[in-house]
Amino acid sequence: MEPIAALAFLGTLIFSAPAALLPLLAAFNPRRIWVVRLTVLSIGLGPILLAFLVTTALTLVPGMSTTFYKGAVLGTLLVIVILARKERHRARAALQYLVCSLTHRRERGPIFRLGVLTALFIVMTLVGLSIAMPLDENDALEYAGSARAIYNLGSAVSYPFLDSNITGGYYGPWSHALGYISLQVWGFLIQGHAAEAGVIKLIAPFFALCTALVVWTWLGGARRTWAIWGAVVLLSTPLFYLSSSANQIDAIRLFAFFGAGMILPLAWGTQRIMPLVACGAVAGSALFTHSIGILAIPIVGFVLLLKSPFGLRGSMRQATIVCSVAIALVSYRLADNVILFGSPIADVGAVPVYALPGLDWIGY
Q1: pTM listed for this prediction
Q2: Residue 163 phi/psi, 5° resolution?
Q3: Is the pLDDT of residue 355 over 80?
Q4: What is the Cα–Cα distance from 335 to 348, expressed in whole angstroms?
Q5: pLDDT tens for residues 122-155?
Q6: Are 15 and 45 in contact (CB under 8 A)?
Q7: Do the Cβ atoms of 291 and 248 come closer than 8 Å?
Q8: What is the dihedral of CA 232, 233, 237, 240, to 10 degrees?
Q9: Is the distance from CB of 46 to CB of 285 less than 8 angstroms?
Q10: How many CB atoms neighbour CB 132 within 10 A?
Q11: How far apart are CA 50 and CA 13, in angstroms?
Q12: Residue 201 and residue 68: Cα distance in Å, rounded?
């Protein structure tokens, strides 16, 4: 892995966070505690927004140079930040509060400091293992292979790859939306080649850290000493740790699920359009990162029906707006899947080997 490319890649992920945070602050106009929570959430939402912009550019304007795509994506992020710049003061205050919470709050005792050090140690080992180990598991190879094909073609139009003649022999009939894959494509754009995995190995540990920060914040953050240990429990869970160190998709899709649930209290108490649209966009990020994220949408809608104080008609309106926005974000992918596979989500049905009668897949 090239150190300069790795720093540049991580820098763009961090740079994307304000482009997610400032519009959310403008939409919700939240109290201070929610400003802090949205700031933490945006550390992961920003890269997902970046992936959405990469997907859009490679779909609408295929075949352009790497410089064009990097300029278009970063330029769009900058425009979003400029348009929402009125919220920058609240964002800065929340960031300062978070830094102080994790570093030099005097009332924090040894239990808190030990939790922070333990979490940092786990994250560092995740990064080390991720960099040192090759991509050798099925899903990790699946996503990286698709990302390399998109990078080499300079286009996302041919995804999913049902015709291996286009890709020089790679066959990838996956029905997932391009959230994780487009982040990997962005990594290839930053490092300038797809000859090796390189910087894309940093994505899973990055989102493992983002998910841990969301758990810490939601459990009380700096207000509760033991909240940091919730993040430690998540990071040290064997399956989560192993999947994150093996460059699997689990960390980013769990982050998106957590985000969809975390933001709901800001939506169920209002009938204003912008907060509901923002909530729908966050819920849609779960489906954008992985097909299983479609489960987040009915869950979000059901919770709104239960918690809304506006009666059946008002709650139905809230749920309809939120769910419609969430689905609209990936409507192109869902419609394309219906055309290609006959179903909006068809990960199993898309792979012809499962249809071979000799395998007796149904019996198995």
Answers
A1: 0.91
A2: -110, 105
A3: no
A4: 17
A5: 999 999 999 999 888 888 998 999 999 999 999 9
A6: no
A7: no
A8: -60
A9: no
A10: 10
A11: 8
A12: 24
